[in-house]
Design a protein that fits this description.
single chain; about 350 residues; alpha/beta; about 30% helix; about 20% strand; globular
């Protein structure tokens, strides 16, 4: 069974916040925000619009148009974006499915925070290869910028949070659908519209970081109340920032490289064959180091999202789309979607780019 990404779409709000504005509000020097944190600007949502479902629908419509498919062609819609969405204890996937008019699809959700894109793609690829369904839509959105308190310096690593949405159309076709050419033309089963062939994935988790980034109130341990609102407990916080940095520093780079290498190996490739990495937004120096360790040139073989910031599991789609626009991706390139999310989980999925 060949599984391919046949459509790609993104959406970002019009409103922006610049690195200079973040610096003014937080008290952190502008050059630190722009150069070290890597935020020239980022997109943010207005209070009364651009909710997770609205942004997801916009990205999904673009992806469906890119794949030349109708919403009724979909068999499943998977939301893998932020849990901070229109409502709590609620299915964004179901609402998105309805608003798209995907009347033949069922809806479900997958949540791995910022590591979500490679894992959701891994899950739906396995599903398409084993079930009698052929077409899936992966959607994600985030406006977690709403949860950032710029007055809390302990949470400064979240000052890059931005807003936006992404969508992938993923299709499957049997090997027999390729025709006389065998596997020499992977795009044949998809009418020539394959953007990328999905290969293998890998992931690993260090759960000792599970409580390092939390919103103190709003869950069952401390439900919302007048007191929690008055005390400002509904923004994301880091209880022990120095301890988190000390413990995360030695393990993060090895974990990124480990999942990338494992996904490549499972796909039958190695680092020397890798051409492009769509990487989660992080501080600029670490972004460059990850690509350097993988044997790549950060100025050519990836895309640094310093005009978007970190948009949770939307980052990989943004980096792919901007890589195409910047002529950094060519047909035949081997691509790795590489991500990490607090908790802490690292994930990777390998693609063979078809353009």
């Amino acid at each position: 069974m060949t599984v391919s990404i046949t459509g790609l779409g993104t959406y970002v709000p019009d409103e922006t916040v610049t690195g200079a504005e973040i610096a003014a509000e937080s008290g952190i020097p502008e050059d630190v925000v722009v150069e070290k944190m890597g935020v020239r600007e980022k997109r943010v949502c207005p209070p009364d619009g651009d909710h997770a479902t609205e942004m997801s629908v916009a990205a999904a419509e673009a992806a469906l148009a890119d794949a030349d498919l109708d919403p009724t062609d979909l068999d499943v819609v998977v939301y893998h974006g932020s849990e901070y969405k229109d409502h709590v204890v609620w299915s964004a996937a179901a609402a998105i499915t309805d608003r798209l008019g995907a009347t033949n699809a069922y809806a479900t959700e997958s949540y791995t925070l910022c590591a979500g894109a490679p894992i959701a793609l891994r899950q739906v690829t396995a599903q398409l290869r084993t079930e009698p369904i052929g077409t899936a839509l992966l959607v994600a959105a985030s406006r977690e910028e709403d949860l950032v308190d710029y007055a809390n310096e302990d949470s400064s690593f979240m000052f890059n949070f931005g807003s936006g949405a992404s969508a992938f159309v993923v299709e499957a076709a049997s090997e027999s659908a390729r025709g006389d050419d065998g596997d020499t033309d992977d795009t044949a089963p998809f009418g020539g519209r394959a953007r990328a062939i999905v290969e293998a994935s890998a992931a690993e988790t260090d759960g000792s970081f599970a409580d390092d980034v939390v919103m103190p109130a709003g869950g069952s341990k401390r439900p919302p109340s007048e007191e929690t609102v008055r005390e400002g407990l509904h923004t994301l916080g880091v209880p022990d920032p120095d301890g988190m940095k000390r413990r995360l520093g030695p393990v993060s780079l090895p974990a990124y490289l480990s999942v990338a290498d494992e996904a490549l190996d499972r796909s039958g490739f190695d680092r020397d064959e890798l051409n492009y990495v769509a990487l989660t937004h992080m501080k600029r120096s670490f972004h460059e180091r990850v690509l350097d360790e993988l044997g790549l040139d950060s100025a050519r073989d990836g895309y640094y999202l310093d005009e978007f910031g970190h948009v949770q599991s939307v980052d990989q789609a943004l980096a792919l789309e901007r890589g195409v626009e910047a002529n950094r991706l060519e047909a035949g390139d081997l691509v790795c979607l590489l991500a990490a999310g607090t908790g802490y989980t690292w994930s990777a999925t390998v693609l063979r780019w078809r353009g």
